[in-house]
Amino acid sequence: MVKALAFDLGASSGRAVVGQFDADKLTIVDTHRFPNEPVHVLQHMHWDILRLLHEIKQGLIQTRLKGHADAQSIGIDTWGVDFGLLNTQGELLGNPYHYRDGHTNGVMEQVFQQVPQAEIFQRTGIQFISFNTIYQLVALQRSASSFLAQADSLLLIPELLRYFLTGKRLSEWTIASTTQLCDPTTQNWDTSLLQKLDIPTRLFQSPVSPGTLAGTLLPAISSEVGLPSLQVVAVAEHDTASAVVAVPAASPDFAYLSSGTWSLLGTEISSPILSAQALQANVTNEGGVNQTIRLLKNVTGLWLLQECRRIWKNEGQQFTFEEEKKLTAGAPPFRSFINPDHPMFMSPAHMPHQIQAYCQQTGQPVPQTEGEIFRCIIESLALRYRYVLEMIENLVQKRFSGLHVVGGGSQNTILCQYTANALGRKVWAGPVEATAIGNLLVQYISLGHLENLQQARSLVRRSFPIQTYEPLEVSQWEEAYVRFCQVI
Ligand code: LFR
């Protein structure tokens, strides 16, 4: 039995997950859970980064107390694009911004005046989203940030947390690729793009491949948490890259949806697609494991539901999942649709009001009840998935027989069923814990217990339940899709 420990930091919480691998099966157990909530201070939204380091240490202690002091290694993953700056002494400068902060508003469009959009895509292969690291850095530089002026290096958040544990500054490829500052063919920073934008090149060092051994726990941390000096692996530190590792596909040609706060829908390819059509579709070519590229598109995902729940909770209304299901099923079908990716849904605002405003502005019936709003969101997500899947298929010139849905959203039975209906194809749902599992699998590959991605995915198939959804009511959904496309 080989044990490893994954720290997976998601949109509202983080956790420590121990993997136990006995050659035939992988089982996982949580040893610690903690909040990962942004902190609003003055005009800005920041990571609570030192608290997270504290929670990671608590996770190490709990892992020992719960009988897993024999874990061999650790890996950390989080979402993309956010970073911390270090001075020459290796101290953190300021508090990292959260990507939903407003400081990048309008910056992307200004950058296009300096470097044309098509050139940025040609160089990086990354989709255009206003919060990418490239625009965060330009925003800092335009505001004459003294932190940027003093900075000696930049580490993306999982790299920063790993640095706090090991004392070593090391950049990792999957998370580096999300910055929109790397060349996907050389898997290195695009220095001429950095220079064109006056972003200091001294901040960056060549990324290592996911699975690289990145040091051991610092002696001070080992003694603080009472564990030996464990190996720290630079796993696929971008959470989506980890999730894609854990897609239980048997064939090399498959489509996936990593379903959480974001819905990341795409496929795995061997070299980036940088065509004008790809630029037009605003897809991304992010770095994957074993020299793969994750060709995918971001769809605003469960965020829409999470934000509605947050608002209703503040207003004194809370529903269990079973209640939500009933409310959704009880609302009339196909009344109004939203484009989940409209910018008005991006920042934390009053989501139910935003959805109502969208429906009103597009001349559709305005959903009133919670059930009507849930239904509008879930139908729109499922229809958007079809739109994006077909877009990806056009780019790779393939047709997939169904869609693998992994992550927390694979538990949402209504969303999975509606997705199968909207696609008119099968949906295979699971594993739920894909991100943590992918994090662990890369550690097992790195330590020599698994050979490659194929073996890792076959282990996932043997170890975790996968639920199949068959498409239903296909002709009604076909009609709905036509209307959805008109609305968006
Ligand atoms: C998902 C994710 C997406 C990325 C977004 C912001 O958690 O990592 O892949 O586009 O968050 O970083």
Which fold name is given in CATH as the topology of the largest domain? Nucleotidyltransferase, domain 5
Count of DSSP-assigned helices:
19
Category by helix and strand content: alpha+beta
Shape: globular
Assess the beta-strand content as a share of residues: 15-25%
Average pLDDT confidence is 97
Number of domains: 2
Distance between the termini: 51 Å
- For the biggest β-sheet, the strand order reads 16-17-15-14-18-19-20
Number of strands: 20
CATH-defined superfamily of the largest domain:
ATPase, nucleotide binding domain
Bound molecules: beta-L-fructofuranose
Q: Under the CATH scheme, which class of the largest domain?
A: Alpha Beta
Q: Radius of gyration over alpha carbons?
A: 22 Å
Which bin fits the share of residues in helices? 40-55%
Instruction: Indicate the CATH architecture of the largest domain.
Output: 2-Layer Sandwich
The parts where pLDDT drops under 50 for at least 5 residues are none
Question: Which sheet architecture does the biggest sheet show?
Answer: 7 strands, mixed
Family: Belongs to the FGGY kinase family.
Organism: Dictyobacter formicarum
Domain Carbohydrate kinase FGGY C-terminal: 255-445
Keywords: ATP-binding, Disulfide bond, Kinase, Nucleotide-binding, Rhamnose metabolism, Transferase
Describe the structure.
41% of the residues lie in helices and 20% in strands. By secondary structure, it is α+β, with helices and mostly antiparallel strands. It folds into two domains: 2-239, ATPase, nucleotide binding domain (Nucleotidyltransferase, domain 5, 2-Layer Sandwich); 247-430 and 451-488, Nucleotidyltransferase, domain 5. The model has no long low-confidence stretch (mean pLDDT 97). Bound molecules: beta-L-fructofuranose. Residues 79-81, 99, 238-240, 260-262, 264, 298 line the site of beta-L-fructofuranose. Residues 5-245 form the Carbohydrate kinase FGGY N-terminal domain. Keywords: ATP-binding, Disulfide bond, Kinase, Nucleotide-binding, Rhamnose metabolism, Transferase. InterPro entries: ATPase_NBD, FGGY_C, FGGY_N, Rhamnulokinase.
